[in-house]
Design brief:
Layout lengths: L1 H12 L6 H12 L5 H14 L3 H14 L11 E2 L13 H11 L4 E5 L9 H8 L7 H11 L1 E5 H4 L7 H7 L19 E5 L3 H14 L3 E7 L11 E8 L3 E7 H4 L14 H12 L5 H16 L6 H13 L2 H10 L2
Parallel strand pairs: 1-4, 2-3, 4-5
Antiparallel strand pairs: 5-6, 6-7
Helix pairs in contact: 1-3, 2-4, 3-9, 4-10, 5-13, 5-15, 6-12, 13-14
Length: 336
């Protein structure tokens, strides 16, 4: 096993990408707890220095999917709004709010996420403050998805094999290949994804990977202001990935019929502040935070075919919030 890792480290250090099967075997060994921590650290650093490739991301995702605890369901259409994180934007949990509004609009949602790593507040952190049970086992998560049309897939709970690499990742203290795997390894097998990335380079790679891994349709988005969200500050770069094709285009605030909003207007210092913002939006408060959720939800509704275009999506998202349906959906997720 050590020789396989050492050969891969030499290969990566020479600037040559690993192929899918090779990467899959190496990640598989890591997640079984069969790899030496020093070899794991050296390989992750070598891949980072070289620059991770699509083949490596696909191979690693396939291995991680084999080890995750799956959530069974019967939904033909299932949405996830999990992004890569790492933008450092400090915004409230927009994609989490979008997931709840989309579910309230009738879309089945399996929101994948974790506690904060590179952000001020992760999806698990804000949902916990909102009162949502995040430590549920797979059976309970599946029951919630069937009953409420939305569930939270807590990465720390449903990817138990990650315990074998968490120590190394903490020691390294830098982003590695594993930071890109979360959105590609939804335990419920989401058919549609609104997936934000923090850089254009990551966007291109993740879009290619999700196409190779298989998706009904996904929007991989990156805000020109650095947000890993649909952004209302400048333009949002979109890669529209389908089963065998992809298209690229851009959205601006004007396309949504909304006012521009800067990142500063969306700032949340911690999970408590993020939860407060979400509660206020669902209670009917207007402003840039609501508009950010409307834009993200509009994209999600277009993605799954509930809205004909993003203007229609904004209208449907606004109606969902104003009717109280989003607030009620959060209450059902909490269990009250």
């Amino acid at each position: 096993m050590a020789s396989l890792f050492q050969a891969a480290i030499v290969q990566a250090n020479s600037g040559t990408d690993l192929d899918e099967d090779q990467t899959s075997d190496l990640i598989d060994a890591m997640l079984r707890g069969e790899a030496d921590e020093r070899d794991v650290a050296n390989l992750l650093l070598a891949l980072k220095e070289k620059g991770e490739s699509v083949s490596e991301l696909v191979g690693a995702s396939r291995a991680m999917r084999r080890h995750m605890t799956r959530i069974p369901h019967s939904h033909q259409v299932l949405l996830d709004t999990c992004g890569t994180g790492g933008s450092g934007s400090g915004t409230f949990n927009i994609s989490t709010a979008v997931a709840i509004v989309a579910a309230a609009a009738g879309v089945a949602v399996a929101k994948h996420g974790n506690r904060r790593a590179t952000s001020l507040t992760g999806s698990a952190d804000v949902l916990e403050v909102l009162g949502v049970p995040i430590e549920s086992d797979a059976e309970s998560v599946a029951q919630r998805l069937d009953r409420d049309g939305i569930c939270f897939c807590f990465a720390a709970k449903l990817h138990p094999a990650m315990r074998h690499v968490i120590g190394v990742r903490r020691q390294l203290g830098v982003k590695t290949l594993f930071n890109l795997l979360g959105p590609l390894c939804n335990p419920a097998g989401a058919t549609h994804q609104l997936l934000g990335t923090s850089t254009l380079e990551t966007q291109t790679m993740v879009a290619a990977a999700i196409g190779a891994l298989g998706t009904t349709r996904s929007f991989v988005v990156h805000g020109a202001d650095g947000q890993d969200e649909v952004s209302l500050d400048g333009s949002t770069h979109v890669i529209d990935v389908r089963a065998s094709t992809s298209d690229t285009y851009q959205w601006t605030a004007a396309d949504f019929g909304l006012q521009p909003a800067t990142r500063d207007a969306l700032y949340a210092a911690d999970p408590n502040k993020s939860a407060e913002i979400i509660r206020r939006i669902f209670a009917g408060e207007s402003g840039p935070c609501r508009d950010a959720v409307l834009a993200g939800t509009a994209a999600a509704l277009v993605l799954v075919g509930v809205a004909s275009d993003i203007r229609d999506g904004v209208t449907k998202a606004a109606e969902t919030i104003d009717s109280g349906a989003a607030k009620d959906k959060l209450a059902s997720l909490v269990g009250h």
